[in-house]
Each structure stands twice: as structure tokens, then as C-alpha cells.
Design brief:
Pfam families: Acetyltransf_1. The protein is α+β, with helices and mostly antiparallel strands and 183 residues long. It has helices at 22-36, 47-50, 78-84, 108-123, 136-144, and strands at 7-8, 13-16, 57-62, 65-74, 92-99, 127-132, 148-155, 165-172. The chain has one domain: 3-Layer(aba) Sandwich (Aminopeptidase). Strands 1-2-3-4-5-6-8-7 form an 8-stranded mixed beta sheet, with helices on both faces. The protein binds coenzyme A.
């Protein structure tokens, strides 16, 4: 039996992130940056980038080795919040989500998203996220899980003189289950 608050994927276990996980996560992030340009900037391959979101974070482990993470930021951008029909402060934004190249296809990402979505549902908060155009697998994964695509816009995250990226917004409306109404 897994302990409480642990979700099992086919081969992955998800649990809350601990500070001790950060060195291993930074190593995984370096591999993900090399392979997938995530994060876009090499300078963001660091623990501080992983811990920037102010909400809870979880890691996926396989055979006791940390292979990925997902985090939540309180609040959402106004476009996503409008689509969700909520105040921006009431939503949560999914962030810092990745799985080690060697652990892909094992359900680790699915287990991480199961955990985040269950947390948001339990908190009565809807979810939003942004993915760049070249994050093809991630965008396919969100769509396959029923997230609603809101289209893309040209993001200038690195200033007017920096590179532009197509950023795709997705939202997932999540309301807590209604209590059963008696006859
Ligand atoms: C997105 C990512 C986390 C998926 O990790 P993963 O461990 O391979 O995912 P899973 O094994 O849980 O696969 C779940 C589903 O993702 C989708 N998927 C995964 N890789 C895919 C690919 N290359 N193309 C299309 N769909 C893909 C499939 O729907 C798959 O379901 P299936 O196994 O039933 O076909 C991983 O590719 C990654 O870390 N990418 C780089 C970082 C990134 O882009 N993060 C998102 C930022 S918004």
C-alpha cells in the first residue's frame, strides 16, 4: 500500500517535493533543456527556477530515483481566468513540469498530472497553463487529458529585443464534486 498522498503511475510514484530533491531535479532539468529546450534559457537550469512557483510541488520517482516534477503557482493570467469564468486570483497555474528523457513513456507525466488535477479539484480551483509551440509532447498530453486549448499568442518573455515564442494557453475547469442531493 503506498502511503497517503502518494499517487502511483505504471512505474512512477508521485510524492510532495522535498528540498533534498532539488540537486537531482536540476540534473534532470539540464537533460530536459538539452533535449527539449525546456526551460528555454540555459540560465534557468537551477534550483531557484524550480522553486519559483509559490504553490505546492510534487516529484515523480522511479526505483527511488527522482525523474520529474510539477509545481503550482497561485493565480492565472487574465485571459485564462476569463475563459474559466473565475477571478484570476482564484485559479492555479501549472508550472515547471518535466520528466527525464530516460523515463519518458512510463506514465510519470500522467501520474504527476493526476496528482495536480486531484489537488486542484480538492481545493475547488480551476487550472491554467502555457506551453510553447516546440513543447509538442506536452501540448498533445494536455489535449488528450481534456484540457481546453485557448489558442496561442506571441510571447515576449525575454524583452522586446529577445526571441518571440508562440505560447499556447490551456485551461481545465475543476469544481469540487457537488454533494449528492437527496430525493
Ligand atoms: C511532456 C512530458 C512531461 C511527457 O512525459 P512522459 O513521461 O513521456 O509522458 P507519459 O509517459 O506520462 O505519457 C502520457 C501521454 O503523453 C502524450 N505524449 C507523451 N509523449 C508524446 C509525444 N512525443 N508525442 C505525442 N504525445 C505524447 C501521450 O498522450 C501519452 O499517453 P499514451 O502513453 O497513452 O500515449 C515530457 O515529454 C517532457 O518532459 N517534455 C519536456 C518538458 C515540457 O515540455 N514540459 C511542459 C511545459 S508546458
Amino acid at each position: 500500500m503506498p502511503p497517503a498522498d502518494v499517487t502511483t503511475g505504471e512505474l512512477a510514484v508521485v510524492r510532495p517535493r522535498a528540498d533534498e530533491d532539488l540537486p537531482a531535479l536540476v540534473e534532470v532539468l539540464a537533460q530536459v533543456h538539452e533535449r527539449d529546450r525546456y526551460p528555454i534559457m540555459r540560465s534557468n537550469v537551477r534550483a531557484g527556477w524550480l522553486t519559483e512557483p509559490d504553490g505546492p510541488a510534487w516529484v515523480a520517482e522511479r526505483d527511488g530515483v527522482v525523474v520529474g516534477q510539477v509545481a503550482l503557482q497561485h493565480g492565472a493570467d487574465p485571459v485564462s481566468a476569463t475563459a474559466l469564468g473565475v477571478d484570476p486570483a482564484e485559479a492555479l497555474t501549472l508550472s515547471r513540469f518535466f520528466v527525464a528523457p530516460a523515463a519518458r513513456g512510463s506514465g510519470a507525466a500522467r501520474a504527476l498530472l493526476d496528482t495536480v488535477e486531484a489537488y486542484a479539484r480538492g481545493a475547488g480551483r480551476s487550472l491554467a497553463l502555457e506551453a510553447v509551440g516546440h513543447s509538442v509532447a506536452a501540448r498533445a498530453l494536455y489535449a488528450a487529458r481534456g484540457w481546453t486549448p485557448l489558442g496561442s499568442y506571441e510571447a515576449r518573455w525575454f524583452g522586446d529585443d529577445g526571441p518571440a515564442f508562440d505560447a499556447y494557453r490551456f485551461v481545465l475547469p475543476l469544481q469540487p464534486a457537488e454533494p449528492a442531493v437527496g430525493p
